[in-house]
Amino acid sequence: MKKSNLYIILFLMFTSFLVAKENISVSTLTAVKFNTVCAKCHEGQCSGRLSFDSGAKAAYSHINRYTKTSSDDEVNEFFTILKYMKKECKIFLPNLKYKENYSKKDILPYEIPSKKAYFIPLGILKIGIYTLKINIEKFRQYKVEVISEHFDMLLDKCVISCSQKNDLSYLVKEKANYYLRIQSKDKLIINNIKNF
Questions:
Q1: Which member of 25, 85, 151, 163 has the greatest number of CB atoms within 10 A?
Q2: Exposure pattern of 57-74 as b/e (b: 16+ CB <10 Å)?
Q3: pLDDT tens across 53-69, in order?
Q4: Fold observed for domain 101-195
Q5: Can you give the pTM of this predicted structure?
Q6: What percent of the chain has pLDDT over 70?
Q7: What are the CA-CA distances from residue 162 to residues 30, 136, 143, 180 (Å)?
């Protein structure tokens, strides 16, 4: 095979993957719900061999039990994210607009309506030590996780807040795309988050 033909084949394979990913139509809210509720149990189940022939309809009662979803469209979105996660072995979150400093307004797209869970993109982080500063409105107990797009856990900490400002450090050993997952049993209002 000629070298130029090999490059063409590789280019076509790469661009078809990009097109496939871009065709995923899922709301950010559904992805945040999935990554805070569903992914905790399903993130270790990657396999391109899994069958999805039963479709979202068959999974409706399971999805509704955990997410209290009533919309068929949202159930289809959950199922789409699950298929992506299982086939690509990656976290899916659309509209990635990550920042080093998130204001309360910036955080809004990444919270579930109850304000008990957040799933926030941290972006592509280089190797090094990072500090996460979380400023909350009231003293609360909450769980903080920093996780890579391939489900590697860098930080898994329960914070019992005696202060409205909490600093957590973590070590990045591999350059990758990372996310911040925050969960609380009670309503947790976050004023801002800094990651540096």
A1: 85
A2: eebbeebeeebebeeeeb
A3: 555 555 666 666 666 66
A4: Jelly Rolls (2.60.120)
A5: 0.77
A6: 71
A7: 32, 11, 14, 21
